[in-house]
Amino acid sequence: MRARNKLTMLQIRHLAPGKYNDGGGLWLQIRPDGGGQWFLRVTVHGRRREMGLGGLQDVSLAEAREEADRWRSVVRANKDPIKERARIRRELERDDHTLASITDQAFRARQAELKGDGKAGRWMSPLNMHILPKLGRVPIEMIDQQDIKNSLAPIWHDKVSTARKAMNRLNIVMRYAAAMDLDVDIQVTEKAKALLGTQRHVTRNIPAVHWRDVPAFYASLSEPTVGNLALRLLILTAARTSEIRYCHESEIQDDVWVIPPDRMKAGKEHRIPLPRQALELLEIAQMWRRSGFFFWSRRAVISDAAMSSIMKRRGMEERPHGFRSSFRTWCAEATDTPREVAEIALAHSVGGKVEQAYRRTDYLDQRRDLMQRWADHVTGGE
User: What PANTHER family does this protein's entry cite (predicted)?
Assistant: First the structure.
C-alpha cells in the first residue's frame, strides 16, 4: 500500500513551485506566485483522471485529505468522481429553491410573452436592483413580508414606479413558486404593501418643450455630432429614444421608417413617414453608421442617456421623451388633425379591441402630410 500523509503544514509553507505528492493520489501544485491547488489523481475505467479539490488558501491539508478519501470511495464503487460530482451539483441546482433561482425560472417561463423575449432586461431590472441583492440567496419559502418591506422601503416613496414594478414582479415569482407546490405565502406582497403604506409620491409628467419653442431648440443642435443628429431625428419623427438609438438602415424603405414589433413598446410594427428633413438628416448620419446602425458611438449604439445629457448640460428640465408631448400638443392646438391620426403617429392604441379589429389602416398618407407639416414647423421651413 502506498504511503499517505507525506506532507506537513510546515513543509507546505516553504515549498518551491512544483507538484508534491501527499500519497494515495492526492497532490498539491504550488504556483510561481505562491498560490497552490489541490488535486486528486485516480484511475477509473482504465483512464487517468485529475480532479481539482480547491485552492490551498481555502482548503487546508486536513480538508484536502478528507475530500480525497470521499472521492476515492467513489472510485472504489467503479464511478468517475468528476462525473459524479457534476451529477450531484445538478441535483442540488434542481432543488435550489432560493429566491434567485425561482425568479430565474419564473422569468424564463414568461419570456415568450415579453417584448424581445425580455432580452433587454427590463422585466428583471427592478428585481436585480432592489430585491435580489438582499434576498436572492434566501430560500423562497422563508421570505416574509418584513423581508420585502425592508428591501423596498428605501425606494417606496421616492422611486414609485420602480418599487411598484419590483413588487408586482415579485408577486409573479411567488405565485410561480406556489405552482411548484412550494410552501410560500402568495399574499406576502400584499402584506408587505400594508407595512409600507400608501405611496406618497405624486407622478409628474415628463417636462416638455412648448411646441412654439421647439424650432429654436432644434436650430441650436446645428453641430453634426451623433447626439445632436439623433435628437434632431427624434424631434422630427416624435419617436422614442430607444427607437432612435437602434435605427437601422434596413428599416428605411424609401421615405418610410418601418420599426419592427420587437422594438416597439406595444409590440406592433410601426410605420413612420419620413419628412424631407429627416431623410436629409439620415444622409448626414451616414458618417456615424456602423453595422447598419445610424447612431453608433465607439463599440455600440449611443447610450440611453446620450440625448438627455445634451439637455441636462444646458440646465433644462425638459427631456427628449417630452418632444412627443410637444408634437401631440401642436397637433391639437395648431392643426385640425383627427385624434386617431395624431395618436397613431405616436404609436398609441386607439379605441377598444373591437374598433381596432375593424380599423385596418394606420393612416399612412394622412400622417405623411402631418409629419411634413411638423417638420416644416420645427425647421422653420428649411
Answer: PROPHAGE INTEGRASE, PROPHAGE INTEGRASE INTS-RELATED
